[in-house]
Write a structure and sequence with these properties.
Length: 218
């Protein structure tokens, strides 16, 4: 009787552990409606980007972490690193990206006079317009998919432009503003004209969030 009970209890216990591991990461809700960034980013793009692409990274990260926990050898754990980096980076980057954006009627695109970030952009790039121009040129040059970053370099104490390929998270700097340069972020609306997407997105960048992030580290 005891051994029969064990044969039922043990599998149930291990399934519940696996389920807990698989449910660690969840898709964060957007702090605005899918159509709130129009006309700069269409509702269709936002909904697909959030519910399909970001959800895919969340699912992939949960699956990779679950496999990592179960992997019986160091060799098999190492083999999962690419999946952890790709899906984990995708989850981290998109979570930051949504908070980097704001509808125009909620302050999107507006960098306040006297803010710490504005002063730092003028110090490190000459002007806010020069910063945007340099950012767009650097990110337009990404070959394939990747991310463009306004980032804080803790060693030089300056703001710098950095790009990362694929879904690599930014690990060398503190991210202040991250812009998704994957085609899924703009193609339905801007087709192949990445420059138009990059010009438009500054109208919905949440500079208040970026200023708060900068003020935390500078
Ligand atoms: Fe994306």
């Amino acid at each position: 009787m005891l051994s029969l009970a064990r044969s039922f209890v043990r599998p149930t216990f291990s399934r519940s552990l696996a389920q807990r591991a698989a449910a660690i990461h969840t898709l964060p809700e957007l702090p605005y409606a899918y159509n709130a960034l129009e006309p700069y980013i269409s509702a269709e793009i936002m909904e697909l980007h959030h519910t399909k692409h970001h959800q895919g990274y969340v699912n992939g990260l949960n699956a990779a972490e679950e496999s990592y926990v179960k992997a019986p050898s160091t060799r098999e754990k190492i083999a999962l690193q690419a999946a952890l980096k790709f899906n984990g980076g995708g989850h981290i980057n998109h979570t930051l990206f949504w908070r980097n954006l704001a509808p125009v009627n909620q302050g999107g695109g507006q960098l306040k006079e006297g803010s710490k970030l504005k002063a730092a952009l003028e110090r490190d790039f000459g002007s806010v317009d020069a910063f945007k121009k340099n950012f767009n040129a650097a990110t337009a040059g990404i070959q394939g998919s990747g991310w463009g970053w306004l980032a804080y370099n803790g060693a030089t104490k300056k703001l710098e432009l950095v790009t990362t390929p694929n879904q690599d998270p930014l690990l060398t700097h503190v991210p202040i503003i991250g812009i998704d340069i994957w085609e899924h972020a703009f193609y339905l609306q801007y087709k192949n004209v990445k420059a138009d997407y990059l010009s438009a997105i500054w109208s919905v960048v949440n500079f208040e969030e970026a200023n708060a992030r900068y003020a935390e580290v500078a």
